[in-house]
Amino acid sequence: MIKKIHLPDLGEGIESAEVSEVVVGPGDTVTAEDTILVLESDKASMEIPAEVNGTVTDVSVSSGDEVKTGQLLIKIEISDSTETVKEEPVLSEEEKQIVKPPEEKTQDVTLYPITKDTASTDNVFASPGVRRLARELGINLQIIKGTGPKKRITKDDLNGYIKLQMAISAGPIPATQPVIDFSQWGDVEAKKLTKIKQTAGDRLQQAWQLIPHVTQFDAADITDLDALRKEMKKTGAEKGIKVTFLPFMMKALSIILKEMPEFNSSLSHTKQNLILKNYYHLGVAVDTPSGLTVPVVRDVDKKSVFELSAELMDMSARARNKKLKPDELKGGTFTISSLGGIGGTGFSPIVNPPEVAIMGISRSAWKQVYDKESSEFLAKFIMPFSLSYDHRVVDGAAAAAFTSRFADILSDLDHFKD
Fold first, then answer.
1. Are 382 and 219 in contact, with CB atoms under 8 Å apart?
2. Which DSSP helix (H) or strand (E) runs through 404?
3. 341 Cβ contact partners less than 8 Å away, ≥ 6 residues apart
């Protein structure tokens, strides 16, 4: 009889895994407890047992392959001595002496390892095969709830625990979208999302789940900057360049990012180091008919307002026509999203990983602001803005200092005169 070993369900949130090692080959003799191959998800590994005694007849996967739930892995010709997983294992003389703990002392199972000696399996009902596999994987059987007779821990219990830990280590499990028939309440129409929106949606969801977001709100007086922009707008028109507020914001950001380098950084993959970047490439969110795109303007600190304006015009046009090159969407160190031309008084943008912060610009408005020197209310052009940041890297005090400094830079016109 041939036993086909398929990839088991690894838990919600894990649809596939990579084969990191194939332990056996055709002709090899295996027992039910032997490991036949090792799988790896993003952050965890799992050893797949043979489940039966027999001889390997065929191996359908190789090291490096990506396999999905239900996929055939290995075929084994079962020997007569095979015990199935569901069969009641034979108790050793030592285990027969174990007294079942009183029912009232039984505790609910915790999903996290306890600090007791994990090598100890006293007061645990499990077959020698299960104990052996648990020792090899470094799993404490005392934290697993047995479902077999007399609460005996079976191989299914052990595999279920492994799948749960893999799902947890792979990251937050996304909620399943419920299936709802909206047509029962009225007329509906299905409109397919563009590929850009689907991709952006997946990345935004992942960023929101993985990054502890905090948003700092502030406002800047850009009355003088507005007057300067109008002057430069006339000069730009003669060169065929449209001068908006955005290049000024970008120049101001390049200045403060040099002063506060943690905002121009990324966490290392180990999350133990901060990678400080000595270049200033700003991602600029562009709304296109197909969805949000974020082209990257490189070396902002080395370019003038006119140069940035010309580059923004070119990139925005090509973004809307889907003519951007792949390299123009990579390498950003900080992102700015401006809704000033549309409206709104404030919003919380989502950090664009692997960056650690993003700025949101909202619509400026004329407001009456009290001036201490003249003791009068004066009309000022006020721009609201927000800073979302990764709280693992940036604390609240630093964020408040960043927004205050940003407002100060915008009021110093010497930074923008070419």
1. yes
2. helix 396-411
3. 244, 363
pLDDT at 266: 96
Do 137 and 47 contact (CB within 8 A), yes or no?
yes
Check if the beta carbon of residue 367 is closer than 8 Å to that of residue 379: yes
Identify the structural domains of the chain with CATH numbers, from first to last.
2-169 (2.40.50.100), 195-415 (3.30.559.10)
Q: What is the DSSP letter of 153?
A: B
Q: Are 340 and 248 in contact (CB under 8 A)?
A: no
DSSP per-residue letters across 166-192: HHHHT-PPPPPPP---GGGGS-----P
Most confident of 35-39, 132-136, 343-347: 343-347
Q: Within 13 Å of residue 166, how many CA atoms lie on the same side as its CB?
A: 27
3-class secondary structure, 37: strand
pLDDT of residue 389: 97
Residue 249 confidence (pLDDT):
97
**Amino acid identity, residue 39?**
L
- 3-class SS of residue 18: strand
Neighbours of 352 (CB within 10 A): 21
Give the residue among 396, 167, 417, 227 at the shortest CA–CA distance from 304: 417
Rounded CA gap, 193 and 180, in Å? Answer: 18
Rounded to two decimals, what is the model's pTM?
0.59
Q: Which residues are catalytic?
A: 391
Residue 234 has pLDDT above 60, yes or no: yes
Cβ–Cβ under 8 Å, residues 261 and 233: no
pLDDT in the model for residue 130:
82
The residues pairing with 153 across neighbouring beta strands, listed in sequence order, are 126
Q: How confident is the model at residue 149 (pLDDT cuts 50, 70, 90)?
A: confident
